[in-house]
Q: What sequence folds into this?
């Protein structure tokens, strides 16, 4: 289990979701992960923070009715200076779509994309350091970038955030791990033409569950979909699912649990 403290630059520190039906989405994740909710910063519209056992684990905001963006969980990477990081992103071929802007007293943020189009956030913490607990069921425990190939995009993240990029040498898989201060914090997975055509390169958030099979069944009962049934993987037992608005995420019962 990890508790929230100021994160080193590049460390995934928060996940956030923008949806059209904020109330219905809260009901879904309350039933799936036992999350409660409190109001969060409102600079970009209605926004709530999800709590697990009284500790903040994620954020959910409401899109304007006329905004038809892809509904997706977005990881935020820690930065000492959001403005400087945003400028580095532009210089390295990425895009800054929103911000940098202040989120009340919580911190300063930007929404960006890498050169392949994968969207992520940048977070400069002030009062809010991000996810307050990781490990128990209902918490985000890993983030992975699904992309065409890892070499060039790995150089982008290394240059912008200072990651150590460690490729996994394999004839069958294009995979690399991102390290901060010697610790693995996220991964890159090159899947070439296997990327979904309607999504392109994208970040995937893994949420811990006590039972991946039971959680996948519950997703369907609550109006979501199972896109890939539960299976055994190197990280544990995994299921790829989507919530009722189409946000895709992975359920994982970690191997060490």
A:
């Amino acid at each position: 289990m990890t508790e929230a403290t100021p994160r080193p630059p590049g460390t995934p520190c928060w996940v956030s979701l923008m949806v059209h039906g904020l109330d219905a989405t809260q009901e879904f994740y309350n039933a799936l992960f036992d999350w409660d909710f409190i109001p969060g910063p409102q600079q970009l519209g209605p926004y709530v923070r999800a709590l697990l056992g009284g500790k903040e684990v994620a954020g959910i905001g409401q899109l304007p009715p006329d905004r038809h963006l892809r509904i997706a969980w977005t990881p935020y990477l820690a930065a000492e200076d959001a403005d400087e990081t945003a400028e580095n992103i532009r210089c390295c071929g990425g895009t800054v779509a929103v911000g940098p802007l202040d989120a009340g007293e919580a911190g300063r943020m930007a929404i960006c994309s890498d050169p392949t189009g994968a969207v992520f956030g940048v977070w400069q913490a002030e009062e809010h350091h991000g996810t307050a607990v990781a490990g128990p069921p209902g918490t985000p425990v890993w983030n992975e970038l699904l992309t065409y190939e890892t070499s060039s995009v790995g150089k982008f993240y290394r240059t912008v955030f200072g990651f150590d990029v460690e490729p996994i040498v394999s004839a069958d898989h294009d995979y690399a791990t991102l390290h901060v201060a010697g610790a693995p914090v996220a991964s890159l997975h090159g899947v070439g033409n296997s990327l979904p055509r309607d999504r392109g390169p994208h970040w995937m958030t893994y949420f811990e569950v006590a039972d991946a099979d039971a959680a996948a069944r519950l997703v369907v009962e609550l109006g979501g979909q199972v896109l890939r049934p539960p299976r055994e993987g190197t990280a544990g037992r995994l299921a790829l699912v989507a919530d009722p608005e189409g946000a895709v995420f992975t359920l994982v019962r970690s191997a060490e649990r």
Summary: The chain has a mean pLDDT of 93.
